[in-house]
Amino acid sequence: MTLIYEQCLRPAIVSLNPIDQSRWPITYSAAMTLYRDQNGQFHFGTLDFPTHLLQPLGLKILELFQTQDKLQDAFFVHELRGTKGISHHDPHNSEQRCAALVGVLHLFDMQLVQPQDWFVDIALEIRQEGHVLQWLTKGHHRLLAFLLPSIPIKEIDAILASRSQYYCDLSAQLEDLGGFRAHPGSRGKPDHVYYINIYTTDKSATYQLHKGIFRHRKPWHLFPANIGRLSQDLERIAEQFRICGDSPTAGGLEGNARLEIRVPLSKAEDALSQMPHSLIQDALVSFKNPLFWYFKYYRMAALYHVVQNLRSAHRAARLQPASLALGALVPYQINALIYRPAEGSAESILLEASCQHVL
Question: Where are the beta strands (DSSP E) in the chain?
Answer without folding.
Answer: 119-126, 131-135, 166-171, 174-182, 195-200, 257-264, 284-288
